[in-house]
Protein backbone atom coordinates (compact mmCIF):
# COMPACT_ATOMS: atom_id res chain seq x y z
CA UNK A 1 0.00 0.00 0.00
CA UNK A 2 1.45 3.38 -0.96
CA UNK A 3 1.69 6.14 1.61
CA UNK A 4 -1.03 8.06 -0.18
CA UNK A 5 -3.43 5.12 -0.08
CA UNK A 6 -2.63 4.65 3.59
CA UNK A 7 -3.64 8.26 4.27
CA UNK A 8 -6.90 7.79 2.40
CA UNK A 9 -7.60 4.79 4.56
CA UNK A 10 -6.81 6.65 7.81
CA UNK A 11 -9.23 9.40 6.88
CA UNK A 12 -11.92 7.08 5.63
CA UNK A 13 -11.68 4.92 8.73
CA UNK A 14 -12.01 8.00 10.90
CA UNK A 15 -15.15 9.08 9.01
CA UNK A 16 -16.63 5.61 9.40
CA UNK A 17 -15.86 5.48 13.12
CA UNK A 18 -17.48 8.84 13.63
CA UNK A 19 -20.71 7.85 11.88
CA UNK A 20 -20.80 4.51 13.73
CA UNK A 21 -20.35 6.24 17.07
CA UNK A 22 -23.34 8.47 16.25
CA UNK A 23 -25.46 5.54 15.06
CA UNK A 24 -24.69 3.59 18.23
CA UNK A 25 -25.99 6.45 20.32
CA UNK A 26 -29.48 6.20 18.81
CA UNK A 27 -32.46 4.24 20.09
CA UNK A 28 -35.74 3.58 18.40
CA UNK A 29 -38.84 3.45 20.60
CA UNK A 30 -39.94 0.37 18.64
CA UNK A 31 -38.41 -2.14 16.25
CA UNK A 32 -38.03 0.53 13.63
CA UNK A 33 -34.34 1.14 12.87
CA UNK A 34 -33.35 -0.43 9.56
CA UNK A 35 -29.79 -1.49 8.65
CA UNK A 36 -28.99 -3.03 5.26
CA UNK A 37 -25.62 -4.53 4.29
CA UNK A 38 -25.19 -4.89 0.52
CA UNK A 39 -22.25 -6.82 -0.98
CA UNK A 40 -20.50 -5.51 -4.07
CA UNK A 41 -21.91 -8.17 -6.40
CA UNK A 42 -25.57 -7.69 -5.40
CA UNK A 43 -27.84 -6.10 -7.99
CA UNK A 44 -29.24 -2.80 -6.74
CA UNK A 45 -32.57 -3.72 -8.37
CA UNK A 46 -32.71 -6.82 -6.12
CA UNK A 47 -32.16 -4.66 -3.06
CA UNK A 48 -34.93 -2.30 -4.19
CA UNK A 49 -37.25 -5.29 -4.65
CA UNK A 50 -36.37 -6.54 -1.15
CA UNK A 51 -37.01 -3.11 0.39
CA UNK A 52 -40.34 -2.82 -1.47
CA UNK A 53 -41.37 -6.23 -0.13
CA UNK A 54 -40.44 -5.22 3.45
CA UNK A 55 -42.41 -2.00 2.99
CA UNK A 56 -45.57 -3.86 2.07
CA UNK A 57 -45.08 -6.40 4.89
CA UNK A 58 -44.64 -3.52 7.35
CA UNK A 59 -48.31 -2.65 6.81
CA UNK A 60 -49.07 -5.58 9.17
CA UNK A 61 -47.27 -3.93 12.09
CA UNK A 62 -49.87 -3.27 14.80
CA UNK A 63 -48.48 -0.10 16.34
CA UNK A 64 -49.33 2.79 14.06
CA UNK A 65 -46.23 4.77 15.08
CA UNK A 66 -43.86 1.88 14.47
CA UNK A 67 -45.57 1.04 11.17
CA UNK A 68 -45.24 4.61 9.90
CA UNK A 69 -41.65 4.85 11.11
CA UNK A 70 -40.55 1.62 9.46
CA UNK A 71 -42.22 2.55 6.18
CA UNK A 72 -40.65 6.03 6.26
CA UNK A 73 -37.23 4.50 6.86
CA UNK A 74 -37.69 2.09 3.93
CA UNK A 75 -38.85 4.89 1.65
CA UNK A 76 -35.79 6.91 2.59
CA UNK A 77 -33.53 3.93 1.80
CA UNK A 78 -35.25 3.40 -1.54
CA UNK A 79 -34.59 7.06 -2.40
CA UNK A 80 -30.90 6.58 -1.63
CA UNK A 81 -30.67 3.45 -3.75
CA UNK A 82 -31.61 5.51 -6.83
CA UNK A 83 -28.15 7.07 -6.80
CA UNK A 84 -26.47 3.77 -7.68
CA UNK A 85 -26.03 2.15 -11.06
CA UNK A 86 -26.57 -1.58 -11.36
CA UNK A 87 -24.24 -2.45 -8.46
CA UNK A 88 -23.05 -0.76 -5.27
CA UNK A 89 -19.47 0.61 -5.21
CA UNK A 90 -16.33 -1.39 -4.36
CA UNK A 91 -16.67 -3.55 -1.21
CA UNK A 92 -20.41 -2.81 -1.17
CA UNK A 93 -22.46 -0.37 0.86
CA UNK A 94 -24.30 -0.12 4.17
CA UNK A 95 -27.53 1.83 4.58
CA UNK A 96 -29.05 2.92 7.88
CA UNK A 97 -32.38 4.64 8.32
CA UNK A 98 -34.92 5.11 11.08
CA UNK A 99 -36.85 7.38 13.41
CA UNK A 100 -34.70 7.79 16.53
CA UNK A 101 -35.73 9.10 19.94
CA UNK A 102 -35.03 12.81 20.15
CA UNK A 103 -36.29 13.15 23.73
CA UNK A 104 -39.65 14.46 24.95
CA UNK A 105 -41.59 11.91 22.90
CA UNK A 106 -40.24 13.38 19.66
CA UNK A 107 -38.44 11.44 16.94
CA UNK A 108 -35.87 12.44 14.34
CA UNK A 109 -35.44 10.71 11.02
CA UNK A 110 -31.83 9.65 10.52
CA UNK A 111 -30.42 8.23 7.29
CA UNK A 112 -26.75 7.36 6.78
CA UNK A 113 -25.05 5.60 3.89
CA UNK A 114 -21.54 4.22 4.18
CA UNK A 115 -20.11 3.33 0.79
CA UNK A 116 -17.01 1.18 0.24
CA UNK A 117 -16.19 -0.05 3.76
CA UNK A 118 -12.54 -1.03 4.37
CA UNK A 119 -13.30 -4.73 3.77
CA UNK A 120 -15.78 -6.40 1.40
CA UNK A 121 -19.25 -7.07 2.77
CA UNK A 122 -19.67 -10.85 2.57
CA UNK A 123 -23.42 -11.31 2.47
CA UNK A 124 -26.67 -9.38 2.13
CA UNK A 125 -28.27 -8.53 5.46
CA UNK A 126 -31.56 -6.86 6.24
CA UNK A 127 -31.94 -5.97 9.91
CA UNK A 128 -34.81 -4.15 11.63
CA UNK A 129 -34.44 -3.58 15.36
CA UNK A 130 -34.62 -0.95 18.12
CA UNK A 131 -30.95 -0.14 17.41
CA UNK A 132 -28.80 0.03 14.30
CA UNK A 133 -26.67 -2.98 13.43
CA UNK A 134 -23.11 -1.60 13.44
CA UNK A 135 -21.08 -4.56 14.70
CA UNK A 136 -20.00 -5.98 11.30
CA UNK A 137 -18.63 -2.56 10.37
CA UNK A 138 -16.92 -2.15 13.73
CA UNK A 139 -15.15 -5.47 13.26
CA UNK A 140 -13.86 -4.30 9.89
CA UNK A 141 -12.47 -1.15 11.46
CA UNK A 142 -10.77 -2.94 14.34
CA UNK A 143 -6.99 -2.76 14.11
CA UNK A 144 -6.11 -5.70 11.99
CA UNK A 145 -3.35 -7.97 13.12
CA UNK A 146 -2.24 -11.39 11.98
CA UNK A 147 -1.44 -13.97 14.65
CA UNK A 148 -0.61 -17.65 14.49
CA UNK A 149 -2.53 -19.86 16.92
CA UNK A 150 -1.47 -23.25 18.28
CA UNK A 151 -3.31 -25.31 20.90
CA UNK A 152 -2.07 -28.73 21.93
CA UNK A 153 -2.01 -31.45 24.53
CA UNK A 154 -0.47 -34.89 24.09
CA UNK A 155 -3.48 -36.26 22.24
CA UNK A 156 -4.61 -33.52 19.92
CA UNK A 157 -3.56 -30.23 18.36
CA UNK A 158 -5.10 -27.45 16.28
CA UNK A 159 -3.48 -24.57 14.44
CA UNK A 160 -5.09 -21.57 12.83
CA UNK A 161 -5.08 -17.83 12.36
CA UNK A 162 -6.33 -14.84 14.23
CA UNK A 163 -7.03 -12.20 11.57
CA UNK A 164 -8.20 -8.95 13.16
CA UNK A 165 -11.00 -10.23 15.40
CA UNK A 166 -11.66 -13.38 13.39
CA UNK A 167 -10.42 -16.83 14.37
CA UNK A 168 -9.78 -19.14 11.42
CA UNK A 169 -9.09 -22.81 12.29
CA UNK A 170 -6.92 -24.44 9.59
CA UNK A 171 -5.41 -27.81 10.53
CA UNK A 172 -5.63 -30.41 13.25
CA UNK A 173 -3.72 -33.52 14.27
CA UNK A 174 -4.19 -36.28 16.79
CA UNK A 175 -1.49 -38.39 18.35
CA UNK A 176 -0.77 -42.05 18.97
CA UNK A 177 0.84 -41.33 22.31
CA UNK A 178 -0.07 -44.21 24.62
CA UNK A 179 -1.69 -43.48 27.96
CA UNK A 180 0.27 -43.61 31.20
CA UNK A 181 -0.90 -47.15 31.98
CA UNK A 182 1.43 -49.77 30.56
CA UNK A 183 0.24 -53.16 29.50
CA UNK A 184 1.34 -56.26 31.38
CA UNK A 185 4.59 -57.86 30.23
CA UNK A 186 6.14 -54.58 29.08
CA UNK A 187 9.19 -53.39 30.96
CA UNK A 188 8.62 -50.07 32.70
CA UNK A 189 11.76 -48.62 31.20
CA UNK A 190 10.92 -49.62 27.65
CA UNK A 191 7.38 -48.34 28.03
CA UNK A 192 8.59 -44.95 29.29
CA UNK A 193 11.04 -44.65 26.40
CA UNK A 194 8.43 -45.49 23.77
CA UNK A 195 6.03 -43.04 25.31
CA UNK A 196 8.60 -40.23 25.26
CA UNK A 197 9.41 -41.03 21.66
CA UNK A 198 5.76 -40.86 20.71
CA UNK A 199 5.37 -37.51 22.49
CA UNK A 200 8.46 -36.16 20.73
CA UNK A 201 7.09 -37.35 17.37
CA UNK A 202 3.80 -35.68 18.01
CA UNK A 203 5.43 -32.37 18.96
CA UNK A 204 7.42 -32.55 15.74
CA UNK A 205 4.26 -33.18 13.78
CA UNK A 206 2.49 -30.21 15.39
CA UNK A 207 5.50 -27.96 14.79
CA UNK A 208 5.61 -29.10 11.17
CA UNK A 209 1.96 -28.22 10.77
CA UNK A 210 2.52 -24.76 12.29
CA UNK A 211 5.69 -24.17 10.26
CA UNK A 212 3.91 -25.10 7.01
CA UNK A 213 1.20 -22.60 7.76
CA UNK A 214 3.07 -19.70 9.38
CA UNK A 215 6.63 -19.59 8.01
CA UNK A 216 5.73 -18.33 4.54
CA UNK A 217 3.85 -15.41 6.12
CA UNK A 218 6.33 -14.79 8.96
CA UNK A 219 7.04 -11.22 7.83
CA UNK A 220 3.37 -10.21 8.14
CA UNK A 221 2.93 -12.12 11.38
CA UNK A 222 2.40 -10.03 14.53
CA UNK A 223 3.09 -12.97 16.79
CA UNK A 224 2.35 -16.57 17.71
CA UNK A 225 0.16 -17.67 20.64
CA UNK A 226 0.47 -21.13 22.17
CA UNK A 227 -2.18 -22.70 24.39
CA UNK A 228 -2.85 -25.95 26.16
CA UNK A 229 -2.61 -27.61 29.54
CA UNK A 230 0.64 -27.78 31.50
CA UNK A 231 3.17 -29.19 31.03
CA UNK A 232 2.47 -29.91 27.35
CA UNK A 233 2.72 -26.38 26.02
CA UNK A 234 5.86 -25.78 28.14
CA UNK A 235 7.54 -28.94 26.85
CA UNK A 236 6.59 -27.98 23.32
CA UNK A 237 8.08 -24.49 23.62
CA UNK A 238 11.12 -25.46 25.71
CA UNK A 239 11.96 -28.16 23.19
CA UNK A 240 12.40 -25.60 20.38
CA UNK A 241 10.28 -27.61 17.99
CA UNK A 242 9.11 -24.58 16.04
CA UNK A 243 11.03 -22.86 13.22
CA UNK A 244 13.42 -20.47 14.99
CA UNK A 245 11.75 -17.32 13.61
CA UNK A 246 8.37 -18.51 14.85
CA UNK A 247 9.89 -19.50 18.16
CA UNK A 248 11.19 -15.92 18.51
CA UNK A 249 7.79 -14.42 17.78
CA UNK A 250 5.90 -16.40 20.43
CA UNK A 251 4.06 -13.75 22.48
CA UNK A 252 3.15 -16.09 25.28
CA UNK A 253 1.77 -19.43 26.42
CA UNK A 254 -1.70 -19.67 27.90
CA UNK A 255 -3.70 -22.21 29.90
CA UNK A 256 -6.46 -23.55 27.72
CA UNK A 257 -8.56 -26.57 28.69
CA UNK A 258 -9.66 -27.70 25.22
CA UNK A 259 -7.39 -28.43 22.28
CA UNK A 260 -10.04 -28.96 19.61
CA UNK A 261 -11.12 -26.07 17.35
CA UNK A 262 -12.91 -24.39 20.24
CA UNK A 263 -9.55 -24.24 22.00
CA UNK A 264 -8.38 -21.73 19.40
CA UNK A 265 -11.17 -19.36 20.49
CA UNK A 266 -10.35 -19.98 24.17
CA UNK A 267 -6.72 -19.20 23.39
CA UNK A 268 -7.64 -15.80 21.93
CA UNK A 269 -9.77 -15.07 25.03
CA UNK A 270 -6.97 -16.10 27.35
CA UNK A 271 -4.51 -13.90 25.46
CA UNK A 272 -6.78 -10.85 25.32
CA UNK A 273 -4.56 -8.75 27.59
CA UNK A 274 -1.42 -9.55 25.65
CA UNK A 275 -3.23 -8.80 22.38
CA UNK A 276 -4.52 -5.45 23.68
CA UNK A 277 -0.99 -4.62 24.81
CA UNK A 278 0.32 -5.51 21.38
CA UNK A 279 -2.30 -3.32 19.70
CA UNK A 280 -1.18 -0.38 21.82
CA UNK A 281 2.51 -0.94 21.12
CA UNK A 282 2.71 1.55 18.25
CA UNK A 283 0.78 4.14 20.28
CA UNK A 284 3.11 3.65 23.23
CA UNK A 285 6.25 3.97 21.13
CA UNK A 286 4.97 7.18 19.51
CA UNK A 287 4.13 8.73 22.89
CA UNK A 288 7.51 7.67 24.33
CA UNK A 289 9.18 9.46 21.46
CA UNK A 290 6.97 12.51 21.91
CA UNK A 291 7.93 12.86 25.59
CA UNK A 292 11.58 12.25 24.82
CA UNK A 293 11.56 15.03 22.20
CA UNK A 294 9.68 17.28 24.57
CA UNK A 295 12.34 16.90 27.26
CA UNK A 296 15.61 16.60 25.36
CA UNK A 297 14.89 17.55 21.79
CA UNK A 298 13.03 20.06 19.66
CA UNK A 299 11.18 17.79 17.31
CA UNK A 300 7.80 17.74 18.97
CA UNK A 301 4.78 20.01 18.88
CA UNK A 302 1.43 19.99 20.63
CA UNK A 303 -1.85 21.85 20.89
CA UNK A 304 -4.15 22.57 17.98
CA UNK A 305 -2.63 25.81 16.63
CA UNK A 306 1.09 24.94 16.81
CA UNK A 307 0.45 21.48 15.40
CA UNK A 308 -1.66 22.95 12.60
CA UNK A 309 1.05 25.46 11.76
CA UNK A 310 3.72 22.76 11.65
CA UNK A 311 1.46 20.59 9.50
CA UNK A 312 1.00 23.37 6.98
CA UNK A 313 4.79 23.82 6.80
CA UNK A 314 5.09 20.12 6.02
CA UNK A 315 7.24 19.66 9.12
CA UNK A 316 5.14 16.98 10.81
CA UNK A 317 6.29 13.41 10.33
CA UNK A 318 3.56 11.82 12.41
CA UNK A 319 0.34 13.47 13.54
CA UNK A 320 -0.82 12.15 16.93
CA UNK A 321 -4.51 12.52 17.74
CA UNK A 322 -6.23 11.28 20.87
CA UNK A 323 -8.85 8.65 20.09
CA UNK A 324 -11.20 10.39 22.54
CA UNK A 325 -10.91 13.91 21.11
CA UNK A 326 -14.43 15.21 20.40
CA UNK A 327 -13.89 18.76 19.33
CA UNK A 328 -14.78 21.06 16.51
CA UNK A 329 -12.75 23.97 15.27
CA UNK A 330 -14.59 27.21 14.57
CA UNK A 331 -13.04 29.71 12.16
CA UNK A 332 -14.16 33.31 12.57
CA UNK A 333 -13.37 35.88 9.88
CA UNK A 334 -14.03 39.44 11.03
CA UNK A 335 -15.05 42.34 8.79
CA UNK A 336 -11.39 43.37 8.56
CA UNK A 337 -10.40 39.99 7.22
CA UNK A 338 -8.72 38.62 10.36
CA UNK A 339 -8.98 34.85 10.67
CA UNK A 340 -9.16 33.39 14.16
CA UNK A 341 -9.85 29.84 15.23
CA UNK A 342 -11.26 28.40 18.43
CA UNK A 343 -11.68 24.85 19.63
CA UNK A 344 -15.13 23.90 20.83
CA UNK A 345 -16.69 20.83 22.42
CA UNK A 346 -18.65 19.01 19.73
CA UNK A 347 -21.90 19.15 21.72
CA UNK A 348 -21.83 22.90 22.34
CA UNK A 349 -23.37 25.48 20.06
CA UNK A 350 -21.20 28.09 18.38
CA UNK A 351 -20.81 31.30 20.38
CA UNK A 352 -20.29 34.79 18.91
CA UNK A 353 -16.69 35.94 18.82
CA UNK A 354 -14.80 39.14 19.38
CA UNK A 355 -11.77 39.56 17.12
CA UNK A 356 -8.71 39.89 19.33
CA UNK A 357 -6.94 42.09 16.78
CA UNK A 358 -9.57 44.74 15.97
CA UNK A 359 -12.39 44.13 18.42
CA UNK A 360 -15.02 43.54 15.71
CA UNK A 361 -17.79 41.10 16.57
CA UNK A 362 -18.30 38.02 14.41
CA UNK A 363 -21.74 36.41 14.66
CA UNK A 364 -21.94 32.68 15.28
CA UNK A 365 -23.89 32.10 12.07
CA UNK A 366 -21.10 33.64 10.01
CA UNK A 367 -18.51 31.32 11.51
CA UNK A 368 -17.25 28.22 9.76
CA UNK A 369 -17.43 25.12 11.91
CA UNK A 370 -15.70 21.83 11.22
CA UNK A 371 -14.64 18.67 13.02
CA UNK A 372 -11.14 19.45 14.37
CA UNK A 373 -9.77 16.04 13.38
CA UNK A 374 -11.13 16.34 9.82
CA UNK A 375 -9.53 19.76 9.60
CA UNK A 376 -6.09 18.45 10.63
CA UNK A 377 -6.28 15.23 8.62
CA UNK A 378 -7.09 17.16 5.45
CA UNK A 379 -3.88 19.13 5.85
CA UNK A 380 -1.99 15.96 6.79
CA UNK A 381 -3.26 14.28 3.61
CA UNK A 382 -1.97 17.10 1.43
CA UNK A 383 1.43 17.02 3.12
CA UNK A 384 1.89 13.26 3.16
CA UNK A 385 1.83 13.13 6.95
CA UNK A 386 0.82 9.89 8.64
CA UNK A 387 -1.91 10.10 11.29
CA UNK A 388 -1.90 7.89 14.35
CA UNK A 389 -4.88 7.71 16.71
CA UNK A 390 -3.64 7.31 20.27
CA UNK A 391 -5.57 5.23 22.77
CA UNK A 392 -6.27 6.75 26.20
CA UNK A 393 -5.92 3.34 27.84
CA UNK A 394 -2.36 3.97 29.01
CA UNK A 395 -0.92 6.81 31.08
CA UNK A 396 0.95 8.73 28.40
CA UNK A 397 -1.94 8.27 25.96
CA UNK A 398 -4.32 9.71 28.52
CA UNK A 399 -1.94 12.65 29.04
CA UNK A 400 -2.10 13.49 25.34
CA UNK A 401 -5.79 14.26 25.85
CA UNK A 402 -5.72 15.73 29.35
CA UNK A 403 -2.50 17.79 29.20
CA UNK A 404 -1.79 18.46 25.52
CA UNK A 405 -5.22 19.18 24.07
CA UNK A 406 -5.47 15.81 22.34
CA UNK A 407 -3.32 16.90 19.39
CA UNK A 408 0.45 16.61 18.93
CA UNK A 409 3.04 15.96 16.28
CA UNK A 410 6.46 14.37 15.88
CA UNK A 411 8.45 16.67 13.63
CA UNK A 412 10.81 15.96 10.75
CA UNK A 413 12.97 18.90 11.87
CA UNK A 414 12.82 21.59 14.52
CA UNK A 415 10.77 24.63 13.46
CA UNK A 416 10.64 26.73 16.60
CA UNK A 417 6.83 26.89 16.44
ZN1 LIG B 1 -10.45 41.64 13.20
From TrEMBL:
Subcellular locations according to the entry: Cytoplasm
SUPFAM superfamilies: L30e-like (SSF55315), N-terminal domain of eukaryotic peptide chain release factor subunit 1, ERF1 (SSF55481), Translational machinery components (SSF53137)
A single GO cellular-component term on record: cytoplasm
Keyword Cytoplasm in annotation: yes
Keywords: Cytoplasm, Protein biosynthesis
Domain eRF1/Pelota-like N-terminal as annotated: residue spans: 4-142
InterPro entries given in the database record: eFR1_2_sf (IPR042226), eRF1_1_sf (IPR024049), eRF1_2 (IPR005141), eRF1_3 (IPR005142), eRF1_Pelota-like_N (IPR005140), Peptide_chain-rel_aRF1 (IPR020918), Peptide_chain-rel_eRF1/aRF1 (IPR004403), Ribosomal_eL30-like_sf (IPR029064)
One example GO MF annotation: translation release factor activity, codon specific
Keyword Cytoplasm: yes
Pfam families hit by this protein: eRF1_1, eRF1_2, eRF1_3
Assigned protein family: Belongs to the eukaryotic release factor 1 family.
Function: Directs the termination of nascent peptide synthesis (translation) in response to the termination codons UAA, UAG and UGA.
Subunit structure, as described in the record: Heterodimer of two subunits, one of which binds GTP.
Name of the protein in its database record: Peptide chain release factor subunit 1
Species annotation: Halomicrobium zhouii
Gene expressing this chain: prf1
Amino acid sequence: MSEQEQEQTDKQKYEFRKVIEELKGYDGSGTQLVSIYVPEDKLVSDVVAHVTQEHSEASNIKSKDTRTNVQDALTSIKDRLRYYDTHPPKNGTVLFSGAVDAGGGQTDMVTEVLDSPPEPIQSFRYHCDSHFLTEPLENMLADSGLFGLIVLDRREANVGWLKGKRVEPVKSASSLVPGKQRKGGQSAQRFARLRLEAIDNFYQEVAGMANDLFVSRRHELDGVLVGGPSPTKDEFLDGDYLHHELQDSVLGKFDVAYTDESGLYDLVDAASEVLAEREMLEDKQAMEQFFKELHDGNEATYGFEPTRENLIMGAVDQLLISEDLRQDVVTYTCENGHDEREMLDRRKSTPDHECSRCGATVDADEAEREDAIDHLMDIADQRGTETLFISTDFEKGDQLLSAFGGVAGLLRYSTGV
